[in-house]
Amino acid sequence: MEQITSSYNLFIDSSMGHNSQSKGDDYLVNLQDAHPGVNAGEGEHIRMSLSNFSMAKNFTDVNDNNNAFEMVLSSNETNAEASVSVDLKLDNRNYSTVTELAENFANKIGNAVIASNINALSTANSTFQVTGLSSIQNDKIITFTITTSGNHELQDRNTGGIFGITIRLYSDESDSYMLLGGDRISGDRLGSTDTATSINVEVPTATTIKVTCLYPAQKSTTPFLYLRAPGLLNTNIETRGLRHPADTHNSDVAHSDILGRAVVESNDWIQFTAQSERDFFLDIHQKQLNVLRLRLTDSKNRLIGRSQGGNTASGTGLSQSTLGNLCFSAVLRFDIVKTKHVHHLETQHHVPNIPARFSEGNVPIKIRE
Predict the structure, then answer these.
(1) Quick one: fold of 3-60+222-338?
(2) What is the dihedral of CA 26, 288, 337, 341, to 10 degrees?
(3) What is the reported pLDDT for 114?
(4) What is the SS3 assignment for the chain?
(5) Which residues, at least 6 apart from 272, have a Cβ–Cβ distance to it below 8 Å?
(6) What pLDDT, on a 0 to 100 scale, did the predictor assign at position 158?
(7) Whole-Å CA distances, 194 to 153, 157, 203
(8) Any idea where the domains of the chain sit in the sequence?
């Protein structure tokens, strides 16, 4: 049976870190100077709980973690005149509708087709128009037609064409397959002659390209922010989907450093308040807690809004998490919990139930007459 012997609240504001290594979303707290300190004795352990979390949503829904896709203009013949693979990115911002997102997607493809000059494309292909976006709101499945001002010289792979166009969404690099509604492609980059594709691309005529995604699109891929406490030995576990896609997974679950998560439900604030004492907690194996690291990630254990490092999730500055406004506030609770599982005997030594008159030293002596 558990018994809480003492409790502490730790109030955190990560905007002004004392430690030079601290950032607004990767924060270090030195607990050595705290009195009486966070310590557990024999038969006790430390339980850390998330009581409250709050931060401004200072990152965009479409960002470096979900904006990337590849467009391949290639031939399925070995003597092709040319082959081009173009890495494209959606604009990083909050899209008010799926139609607005689809329009940006279409413009990226159209501009890339015009700029590629693939297979001696006509120089007359200097403009294009996008049509068919109005029907997207019915089922949220992105579909549109790109019409070029000249012959794009592409062909339809689905009808035996040689020189075609392919769109690929790599899940190890980006969550764009979730955002746009396509099949993910795992593993290393494919070669230009491979046929793997994430969405349907048709070439009805010499001046049109029709793109149709497979599943409903979504405006964001970050429903939660995760607060992690790296380096603490604890009892929590997580499924493989919550680890970075590039990590090696030997089983369906693994040790977890997730302390809690908060719903991203608006463009202004992200907040969480515990409804009980054990909504989110970590039972820590360490007897003494001297340093605590708190790190914010998305569901794939990546830095917020940025997959390649750096200190900025959104904006033109370079120091959002060190000098800017990418930070959070939180309240953590530490409970020192005593359990019945102890490592030494706590009961009294056994005392035989013998009447005092028969105990040693109280045996009467019979005197001979």
Answers:
(1) Jelly Rolls (2.60.120)
(2) 130
(3) 85
(4) CCEEEEEEEEEEECCCCCCCCCECCEEEEECCCCCCCEECCCCEEEEEEEEEEEEECCCCCCCCCCCEEEEEEEECCCCCCCCEEEEEECCCCCCCCHHHHHHHHHHHHHHHHHHHCCCCCCCCCCCEEEECHHHHHHHCCCEEEEEECCCCCCCCHHHCCCEEEEEECECCCCCHHHHHCCCCECCCCCCCCCCCCCCEEEEEECCEEEEECCCCCCCCCCCEEEEECCCCCECCEEEHHHCCCCCCCCCCEEECCEEEEEECCCCCEEEEECCCCCCCEEEECCCEECEEEEEEECCCCCCCCCCCCCCCCCCCCCCCCCCCCCCCEEEEEEEEEECCCCCCCCCCCCCCCCCHHHCCCCCCCCCCC
(5) 50, 52, 53, 54, 260, 261, 262, 263
(6) 65
(7) 20, 12, 18
(8) 3-60+222-338, 68-212
Distance CA 30, CA 19 (A): 8
**pLDDT of the residue at 125:** 47
Report the distance separating Cα 194 and Cα 212, nearest Å.
20
Asked if residue 58 lies in contact with residue 305, where contact means CB atoms within 8 angstroms, the answer is no
Residue 1 tokens, joined: 């049976």
How far from each other are the two terminal CA atoms of the chain, in whole angstroms? 63
- Single-letter amino acid code for the residue at 43: G
Structure tokens at 219: 């405006």
pLDDT for residue 94: 95
Q: How many CB atoms lie within 10 A of CB 148?
A: 24
Structural tokens at position 212: 């149709």
Series of mean pLDDT values for 10-residue runs along the chain (369 residues) = 89 87 93 81 92 96 96 63 82 95 97 73 68 87 92 71 81 95 89 81 90 96 95 87 69 87 90 91 91 94 88 94 95 90 58 63 54
Long-range contacts of 28-31 (CB under 8 A, 24+ apart): 28/291, 28/292, 28/293, 29/291, 29/292, 29/293, 29/294, 30/290, 30/291, 31/289, 31/290, 31/291, 31/292
Please name the residues in contact with 226: beta carbons below 8 A apart, sequence gap of 6 or more.
242, 258, 260, 261, 296, 297, 298, 299, 301
